[in-house]
Amino acid sequence: MKEVHALGCQLALVIGGGNIFRGLAASARGMDRATADYMGMLATAINALALQDALEKLDVPTRVLSAITMEAVAEPYIRRRAARHLEKGRVVIFAAGTGNPFFTTDTAASLRAMEINAEVIFKATKVDGIFDADPHKDPKARLIAELTYHEVLTRQLQVMDATAIALCMDNGLPILVFNMMQPGNIKKAVTGTRIGTVVRAGPR
Q1: DSSP state, residue 90
Q2: What Å distances lie between residue 86 and 55, 78, 89, 92, 154, CA to CA?
Q3: CA 184 to CA 1: how far, in whole Å?
Q4: Buried b / exposed e across 151-164, counting CB within 10 Å, b at 16+?
Q5: Contact 94, 13 (CB under 8 A)
Q6: 153 vs 161: CA distance, rounded Å
Q7: Is 187 helix (H, G, I), strand (E, B) or coil?
Q8: Rounded to whole angstroms, how far apart are CA atoms 82 and 94?
Q9: Do residues 13 and 51 make contact, with C-beta atoms less than 8 angstroms apart?
Q10: Which alpha helices (DSSP H) does the chain contain, by range?
Q11: Structure confidence by residue, pLDDT tens digits, 1-48
Q12: pLDDT tens-digit series, residues 102-143
């Protein structure tokens, strides 16, 4: 991300909290869904602060904006403020999802991308893109270079949740699914090197 920031790209990050707490998983075990989701949102704030610290140790200026007010540790999310931070060359980290239960981090990413007029969503994963089968289980699984939103929805491919995909489809925002564990992949993505899987309305 430091290399990409140095290129002059505006970067906004939506971070999850699944390594600490998953609201949907807790709900499945009997916890009230809204309570579980709020706990999950608070977990994203912890990760946002950790990421901010890591980036600023590399001299990358950042701002954490939270959809849940916690002024002692993060700025409240205001769309125009986020846009202004990006204009000033700061990496913006969005915490606490949408601020509402029953919405996933994927949906929060799609929503924030629309609000800041992002050019593309980078969906960072642990695999090289979208495959026609689970690459961890099927050695013959084939990487799919390009898909339409409709194909993702009708084939029920687990890229992002349906609400997030539908939001991107309605607004024509492309999604790039790629392996974030591969060094240099974010830079490759922003400089036009073909990696991962692109999800958009159709072929150019």
Answers
A1: P
A2: 15, 13, 5, 7, 35
A3: 9
A4: ebeeeebebbeeeb
A5: yes
A6: 9
A7: helix
A8: 9
A9: yes
A10: 2-6, 23-28, 33-56, 79-87, 105-115, 149-154, 162-171, 185-190
A11: 999 999 999 999 999 999 999 888 898 899 999 999 999 999 999 999
A12: 999 999 999 999 999 999 999 999 999 999 888 888 989 999
Q: Are residues 65 and 99 in contact, defined by beta-carbon separation less than 8 angstroms?
A: no
Q: Quick check: 47 and 19 in contact, CB under 8 A? A: yes
Longest dimension (CA), the chain: 50
- Between helix 79-87 and helix 105-115 the angle, nearest 10°, is 70
Give the pair of three-digit tokens for residue 171.
């607004």
CATH number of 119-204: 3.40.1160.10
The answer to whether the pTM exceeds 0.85 is yes
Token code pair at residue 157 = 């491919």
In this structure, which amino acid lies at residue 75? E
Show the tokens assigned to 162.
């349906």
Domain 1-103: which CATH number of 3.40.1190.20, 3.30.460.10, 3.40.50.720, 3.40.1160.10: 3.40.1160.10
The closest of 94, 89, 128, 130 to 109, measured between CA atoms, is 94
Tokens of 93: 């980290």
Give start-end residues of each CATH 3.40.1160.10 domain in the chain.
1-103, 119-204
